[in-house]
Design a protein that fits this description.
Blueprint lengths: L1 H16 L2 E3 L7 H32 L6 H30 L3 E3 H34 L4 H4 L2 H19 L1 H7 L16 H4 L8 H34 L4 H9 L2 H23 L5 H26 L1 H12 L1
Antiparallel strand pairs: 1-2
Length: 319
């Protein structure tokens, strides 16, 4: 009797440990999503990958663009490229092959890269705000303050912070048993959603997840806001109206990048934690905006607003 009970327990444990999650495309659009919906998604990925790769190539090969602002832009492009690559397999897998199943280990790996790269991007946007502040506040010492070794150390700190904070998440999730209907509401895995699939106490994960959000996105966005308050104060002290407009114009691209990144990310995080009565379609659409729009739009925004970068891009295609 005991042996039979142990055998049942072993089978159950194996079932829990070998569980899979079911990813979601766009509910109600299953008949058309293989063709029509996959086309814009595929175009977005192609534009994102080509755009960010082109910016990286131009900044690397053009010595005149080896300035702090463009080095930070290359960090942003590299992070956006990583985010696109991290989400391509599952999203296009659903739309092209109707492949919705994902194993626990693959899901944990994907959420690790998505969250790590997202927090690295948050850090890079903060560094770019600091770059604009130094350029406007103290232009004569700009190059001596933001030297290449110092920028490299800043970038390394951003990467280490993102990896260190997200590294425990797969291990915290792996200790759970997943015995509920494991249907996720996105085409990819996120920690705040996967932990709800567990039939165990998720208090530690919930508290740690909230701590990560506050200490990264919350702190970074607050410091970016503070940077712009100080930038605005400096700009208003400039006597020439033309110079004030010129100084503010150098910040437009970064402000667009900040809004494109933080608005859907914060909205999605709030909906997952507090918006239990919100329409599921709203969460799904916000999830796509959060991961697909910034990598798509950042290269376009910076190419349009930066004359030097735009000129180099045009030269590449003309040749």
């Amino acid at each position: 009797m005991l042996q039979g009970r142990d055998r049942i327990q072993t089978v159950n444990d194996t079932k829990f440990k070998s569980a899979v999650f079911l990813l979601t495309g766009i509910p109600g659009q299953e008949e058309v999503q293989n063709l029509w919906i996959s086309i814009p998604f595929c175009l977005m990925y192609v534009i994102s990958i080509v755009g960010n790769s082109l910016i990286l190539f131009i900044i690397k090969t053009d010595q005149s663009l080896h300035e702090p602002m463009y080095i930070f832009l290359s960090m942003l492009a590299l992070t956006d490229l990583g985010l696109s690559i991290a989400t391509i397999p599952t999203i296009l897998g659903i739309f092209w092959f109707n492949s919705k199943l994902i194993s626990l280990n693959a899901c944990f790996a994907q959420l690790f890269f998505i969250h790590t790269l997202s927090f690295i991007e948050s850090s890079v946007l903060l560094l770019m705000a600091f770059d604009r502040f130094v350029a406007i506040r103290d232009p004569l010492r700009y190059a001596s303050i933001l030297t290449l070794p110092r920028i490299s150390k800043m970038g390394l700190v951003c990467v280490l912070r993102g990896v260190a904070l997200i590294f425990p998440l797969p291990f915290l999730l792996n200790r759970f048993r997943y015995c509920r209907a494991n249907v996720l509401s996105h085409s990819y895995c996120l920690h705040q959603e996967v932990m709800k699939m567990a039939c165990s106490d998720i208090t530690i994960n919930s508290i740690y997840g909230l701590f990560i959000i506050v200490s990264t996105v919350g702190l970074d966005s607050l410091l970016i806001l503070l940077s712009y308050v100080m930038i605005l104060k400096t700009v208003l002290s400039i006597a020439s109206h033309v110079e004030r407009v010129r100084a503010l114009n150098t910040c437009v691209s970064h402000i667009c990048a900040v809004l494109l990144f933080y608005t859907p990310m914060i909205s999605l995080s709030v909906l997952h934690r507090f918006g239990k009565s919100s329409p599921p379609l709203l969460q799904i659409l916000l999830g796509y905006v959060y991961l697909l729009v910034p990598p798509l739009m950042n290269p376009i925004v910076y190419s349009v607003k930066s004359k030097h970068l735009r000129a180099r891009i045009i030269r590449v295609f003309i040749k």
